[in-house]
Every structure is written in C-alpha cells, then in structure tokens.
Amino acid sequence: MSIRALIRVGFLSLFVFAACIRPAARKAASPSPPDPGTLPEAWLAGVSCETEPVIQVHAYNEDLYVLRQSKCSHFEAPFLYLLFGEEKALLLDTGSLGEPPVAATVERIREKRARKKGKDPAHLVVAHSHSHFDHIQCDRQFEGLPNTTVVGHRVEDVARFFGIEEWPEGIVAFDLGGRVLDVIPTPGHHPAHIAIYDRRTQVLLTGDTLYPGFLFVFSPNHWDDFRRSTRRMVDFVAGHPVSRILGCHIEMSRTPGKSYPYGTRVHPEERSLELGVEHLLELQDALLAMGEEAAIEAHDDFVIYPAWRAERFQRPPRDAR
Ligand SMILES: [Zn+2]
To answer: In b/e form, how buried is each residue of 232-265, taking b as 16+ CB within 10 angstroms?
Structure first.
C-alpha cells in the first residue's frame, strides 16, 4: 500500500471512529434519565369549557401522572403530581376551589395500575408543595380514606413527616419503594414550601417557587428565605442530573416575556409547563444581582414578583400572608 493510500485509510478510520463516538458523547452531555417520560404539546387552558374535563390526566410514564385542574373550574388551574413506587404512591397537592374530583381520579389511576400489576393498590401519601389554598383545597376528599395518609400543612408537620431535622437546610430522601425522592425545603413563597426531586425521571418538582409565571414572594420578611431556597436548589442540581423542572401553574404566554394578568381564566396561547436548569440558574443570577433590594422583574419565562413592590398590588392567593 502506498503512503498516500495509507494516509487515506487512516483518515477514513478516523472519520468512522468519530462518527461512532459522537452519539455517545452527545449522550454523555445530556444523560437520559433511567425512567424518561413525555409531556403533552399543550394543556387544556380554559378555551372550551363545555368540553374540557375538570381534571386533565396525563401519564408522563406509567409511574408518574401529571394532573391539571381545568381553568374552567378555577383560574389557578394547578398541576398535581402522582408518583408510584413499589410500596407507596405520593400525591403532591390536591387542587384548588371548584371541588374537582381529585380523590376519585387518583383512586381510578391507583386501582387501574394495581390491576395491571396484579397487586393491591399502593399506600397513598398526600403531601403538598405548600399549603396555599389552591394546593390543599381538596384534602378533605382524602380524609378518612383507607390506606391513605394526609400530611399536615405547617412547617413542623412537613418536617416531622419527612424526617427533616434541620429545616430548611436538611435535604432528606423519601423512599416510595424502589423509588427514592429527595425532599428539599424551599421556604420563601410559603414557609412550609418543599421541592421534590425524583431520581427515576430526574424531574425536579418546584411547586410555586419556580414555574412559568409569577414567582410571588408576599412579604419582605420572606425575601431572604426565597433567595436561600433558590441557592439550595442550585447547589442540589449541581450534583444531580435534571431532565425537567416542573412547577404548579402556567401564567406565561408563548410570547417570551408576556404573562397573562394574574387571575385570567382563559389561556389560548399558554406557554409550555416545562422549565430547565438554565431557568433555575437565571433566577439565581437575577436574585444575586438584586441582593436585598427586591424588585419586580419580568424575564422571558417567569416574573420575579416581590408583591410589596407592586404599585397596584396583584391580588395574592387568599391565605398567602
Ligand atoms: Zn402558592
């Protein structure tokens, strides 16, 4: 073989080698979670109340369900999350006013899944991202149900149930049976707020601390907690891969920086629910830049909203303060 031919073969081998390793390198840059899932293109957003279900149920995968209360039922239209392990299921939040049939919907999913697996329905733990009214309103539907535990609303209730000794610095694991969640205290928006990280899907559930909408902080006394909680989540994600950040509401439109006024009942051009680590870092940067001087600041995908800074105070949730 001539030297020229040898060089040609060498280049060809290099090309083939590079083509082979490229997918692996891409995979390493954004690892897929052990248990991936999908979100819908868009959620029902109050556009046709005659036909929209009161609760939209989306199977992210067979062990994680995302439920959305209809905007026709209540403008807050919160998202609820139902995660299954081998022994327990966790429902995070129970919905807002309007009496949506949350317990009956969850029961249906639990029983269908148990039948499919040939097992008894998993013990249900009903916990909350936080206890503003639009996240706990349907708790009473679960009270007294068999095989069900409803976690209380105060900081001490949440800390005791999950075994968080150092509130809010302590991050604890909560095992549903073959599925470990990390519970991260995130006071600021509400004193008893938590975020949940699911190691299986690598989804970070951020409640009302970070979502595509108004990131309300209702009192200057809670501003420092909000900043520290954001920092706690940033530190956490530095050591844990995150596939998606999912919060509890959508108030942004598809036009970057444009939000629907708080309380709007119809969102015809609603932004997607999903955020990423880049949004958490963007929030962290903005809070670092502000320091103690809280300011209302609109970003493309969320609005930082220290409510006491508003000239005309946006109506806060009913029991926010
Ligand atoms: Zn809230």
So the answer is: bbbebbeeeebbbbbbbbbbbbeeeeebbebebe
Distance 174 CA to ligand 1 centre (A): 23
Indicate the domain borders of the chain.
41-309
Centre of ligand 1 to C-alpha 233, Å, is 18
Beta bridge partners of 81: 66, 92
For residue 208, the CA-to-ligand 1 centroid distance in Å is 5
The structure's pTM equals: 0.88
pLDDT tens digit string along 129-188? 999 999 999 999 999 999 999 999 999 999 999 999 999 999 999 999 999 999 999 999
Q: How far is the CA of 132 from the centre of ligand 1 (A)?
A: 5
Q: Are 187 and 193 within 8 A, CB to CB?
A: yes
Q: Span 41-309: which CATH code?
A: 3.60.15.10
